[in-house]
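Lay summary. Proteins are chains of building blocks that fold into shapes, and those shapes determine what they do. In this project we predict the shape from the chain. Here is one chain we studied, written as its sequence of building blocks.
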Amino acid sequence: MLPAAIIFLTAMILICLWVIDMRVRLLPNIYVLSLALCGIAWQLETGFVYVQPLDMLYGAGLGAGSLLLIRFFANWYYKQDALGLGDVKLMGAVGLWLGAEGVLIALTLGAFAGVLHGLITAYHRKFKTGGALNLSSLELPAGPGFIIGSVISALIVMGIIEGPW
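And here is the predicted shape, written in a compact code that computers can read:
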């Protein structure tokens, strides 16, 4: 019963994070921390059958560390915040759920979902305004794409769907 409650709470947290990020481009720490705590509780309750404790730490470090590195270079290149720290913390929390391999899948799928979101948004604006397609000035929250990638990766890690390999 407790694992089902953890999954339900996690789904509600992810929905809140999605909506808030889409509306105000912010991933509040309280929700990201709650996601991390749910990940720890899930692993404890399931006896670490999906992800071992050390792999949880590797996943958190890899999820947050890779985005922190991307953020550093993107901010340097664009001379402004190109990726928020909320996204960094989100993927650190996701790493606790998915481990190192799972968080890499989540990052990859999340980046792909973000690109699709950007293209759809850009084409929608183009057809709505009749102007040219402008990708250089497009600003979108990254959280929703990473949430999609994380959910799909979680389904793979838990054996609910098969990965492409």
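What the prediction tells us: DSSP finds five helices and no strands in the chain.
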